[in-house]
Design a protein that fits this description.
Oligomer: single chain
Number of helices: 10
Radius of gyration: 22 Å
Low-confidence stretches: 338-350
CATH topology of the largest domain: Aminopeptidase
Strand content: 25-35%
Number of domains: 2
CATH class of the largest domain: Alpha Beta
CATH architecture of the largest domain: 3-Layer(aba) Sandwich
Shape: elongated
């Protein structure tokens, strides 16, 4: 049996036995950075354990370049078998290597399915926290870990700097689109008020907007909207800054066959850290829950960041389409679990 337990000072001897078995190799997912004898002193170890347990609390200071995270020790048949962590957010560095979930199983207990079971347990907890999808990375030559991640449904995005980067859906529950905001792990997607729509259309900034918002595409999205349409463009409010940094929505309600087209975009300062992947995944969940069966999107042929966002969230590139009023664009398509349709306008920015 595999279960997850919180770090505990009562298990100090077992913990250091596990660490020593790694013989100096990194213990991924542990948050352990200092293996000195000083760290093994009871008072120092107790402080470190306390910091791991408290790391998930919003009020806990995490420091520059750090994010809130849950830490667990993996127990197998009563014995400490490894470590695993769930990070609640991604920094630019974690977006390249590290991801949301890191784990390690002690060498003598590998190839017993322990990592696979622990990963499934943490994916369920990630879904409960509305993290969907999550990023998991491993060394390119770590065949065992790659198989574990792929076995959990991981979709390989690419290999960067010797690390394989997988996105895994957690199946977080979603509600149909309506007047209520969509809450994602990193943002709130809310319908625009009349005042906000007016501000966008005449170029008058509102309190709580990023200095670079609205972009020209945001104005186009709002102009396409019909008041009261739940599929209309929504404001993307970044939890990190509290500011509106972009829009996401559909060109209109789904067709009779359940097809819709999405469009999205972010101001430049909000790009490149996985925010749009989080937002799009949550929005697609709401579209599925609303009965949408097929979602399409367009990207300009040189918009690689947007292509990556679509690929991460399950889209497939269909064909290159000529545009009557501009350069060619790629057509992307996603068929959901239900029969139907989705998305709008022009997809943009990561």
């Amino acid at each position: 049996m595999v279960d997850l337990i919180l770090p505990s000072v009562e298990l100090a001897a077992e913990w250091w036995d596990l660490v020593d078995e790694f013989a100096g190799a990194p213990v991924h997912g542990s948050g352990l950075h200092d293996r000195s004898e000083h760290e093994r002193e009871p008072a120092q170890f107790a402080a470190w354990v306390r910091s791991r347990v408290e790391a998930s609390r919003p009020e806990t200071p995490v420091g520059v370049g750090k994010v809130p995270a849950d830490y667990w020790w993996i127990r197998h048949e009563g014995e400490l078998a490894g470590t695993i962590t769930l990070r609640h957010d991604l920094t630019p560095a974690l977006l390249l290597v590290g991801g949301h979930i890191g784990y390690a199983v002690r060498p003598r207990l590998r190839r017993r399915g322990i990592a696979s079971t622990a990963l499934q347990l943490v994916l369920a907890r990630a879904g409960a926290q509305r993290l969907d999808p999550v990023l998991i990375t491993c060394d390119d030559d770590n065949i065992g870990s790659a198989r574990t991640i792929e076995g959990a449904g991981g979709v390989l995005e690419d290999v960067r700097g010797g690390s394989r980067r997988y996105w895994v859906s957690t199946g977080a529950a979603a509600r149909p689109l309506g007047a209520a905001p969509i809450e994602t792990a990193r943002a709130t997607l809310a319908t625009f008020t009349r005042s906000e729509v007016g501000g966008i259309l005449i170029g008058r900034r509102q309190p709580g907007w990023d200095p670079a918002f609205p972009r020209e595409d945001d104005g186009d999205a709002v102009r396409m909207a019909t008041e009261g349409d739940p599929f209309a463009a929504r404001a993307i409010r970044d939890r990190r800054t509290g500011l509106v940094v972009g829009t996401i929505g559909c060109a209109g309600p789904p067709t009779a066959h359940g097809r819709a087209e999405i469009g999205y975009g972010l101001v430049e300062t909000a790009r490149g850290r996985g925010l749009m992947t989080d937002v799009l995944a949550a929005y697609l969940g709401a579209l599925r829950a609303s009965g949408v069966a097929e979602v399409v999107a367009h990207t300009e042929v040189d918009n690689v960041p947007s292509e990556r966002v679509l690929a991460r969230t399950g889209f497939s590139r269909v064909c290159r389409e000529p545009q009557p009023d501009g350069p060619d664009q790629w057509l992307w398509r996603l068929v959901t679990a239900r029969r139907g349709a989705a998305p709008f306008g022009r997809a943009a920015e990561s």
